[in-house]
From TrEMBL:
GO terms for biological process: muscle cell development; neuron development; regulation of muscle system process; skeletal muscle tissue development; synaptic signaling. InterPro entries: EF-hand-dom_pair, EF-hand_dom_typ1, EF-hand_dom_typ2, KCMF1/Dystrophin, Znf_ZZ, Znf_ZZ_sf. SMART domains: ZnF_ZZ (SM00291). Pfam families: EF-hand_2, EF-hand_3, ZZ. It comes from the Eukaryota. GO terms for cellular component: sarcolemma; synapse. It is found in: Cell membrane. This is DMD protein. Its main location: membrane. Residues 188-244 form the ZZ-type domain. It is a peripheral membrane protein. Keywords: Cell membrane, Membrane, Metal-binding, Zinc, Zinc-finger.
């Protein structure tokens, strides 16, 4: 699916007249639409796409995510969410497209409609057994978080939804992380890992915002290795693509500022890389 452009996905959905998002799709409809998608991809990437195999595996994946009881039906919205979330497109284009699917004809979205979208999105990490990292499978706290961000308006428009998504709310942070992982796969950074001495660093690069010229490669960072004098709670910045001169200057200024801060300051002010979402127990009751 990572070879599929958003426009090609939309063409296939239009071709099969999949406009009613709350309607169920049966196995035959899913297979027909997937066949259209993979036939087109085979023309562009014939060495990578085996149509019957891809259709079978994608069908299985969609049913594993959205039809755990194996009823043989999933909603059109679920089909679109699964395919578009993993397709080849800019992150914000995906957000705009998905918001449009649940918005009314006037372009606004209420709590119930947003809940449908977030519910279908969270099923992807849930199927991988990763849902606990994203605040659990209950989407009410995320819906509440979004509408609180919008000053508790009864409905939100796309621009406000995009602003909230840019903060990377906990329940949806898996999708931008997926994009960063994909971008980092081939990235080469002109820097040397201070721990294993890998140079250039390939993949993610972690730069210290406490020490000058202190970089860690992804293997050392993920396994929690640190060099002498560097604590795990010190601030780091993650790069999935090579840094620009502007980012280098900005990080230099941050290191300078952090040089004057104490160890206690960093222990007290841990940085969250995403917008934490309160659990149901912590928030007020929400009308569902």
């Amino acid at each position: 699916v990572d070879l599929l452009s958003l426009s090609a996905a939309c063409d296939a959905l239009d071709q099969h007249n999949l406009k009613q998002n709350d309607q169920p799709m049966d196995i035959l409809q899913i297979i027909n639409c997937l066949t259209t998608i993979y036939d087109r991809l085979e023309q562009e990437h014939n060495n990578l796409v085996n149509v019957p195999l891809c259709v079978d595996m994608c069908l299985n994946w969609l049913l594993n995510v959205y039809d755990t009881g194996r009823t043989g039906r999933i909603r059109v919205l679920s089909f679109k969410t699964g395919v578009v979330s993993l397709c080849k497109a800019h992150l914000e284009d995906k957000y705009r497209y998905l918001f449009k699917q649940v918005a009314s004809s006037t372009g606004f979205c209420d709590q119930r409609r947003l809940g449908l979208l977030l519910h279908d999105s969270i099923q992807i990490p849930r199927q991988l057994g990763e849902v606990a990292s994203f605040g659990g499978s209950n989407i009410e706290p995320s819906v509440r978080s979004c509408f609180q961000f919008a000053n508790n308006k009864p409905e939100i428009e796309a621009a406000l939804f995009l602003d909230w998504m840019r903060l990377e709310p906990q329940s949806m942070v898996w999708l931008p992380v997926l994009h960063r992982v994909a971008a980092a796969e081939t990235a080469k950074h002109q820097a040397k890992c201070n721990i294993c001495k890998e140079c250039p660093i390939i993949g993610f690069r972690y730069r210290s915002l406490k020490h000058f010229n202190y970089d860690i490669c992804q293997s050392c960072f993920f396994s929690g290795r640190v060099a002498k004098g560097h604590k795990m709670h010190y601030p780091m910045v993650e790069y999935c693509t090579p840094t620009t001169s502007g980012e280098d200057v900005r990080d230099f200024a941050k290191v300078l500022k952090n040089k004057f801060r104490t160890k206690r300051y960093f222990a007290k002010h841990p940085r969250m890389g995403y917008l934490p979402v309160q659990t149901v127990l912590e928030g007020d009751n929400m009308e569902t």
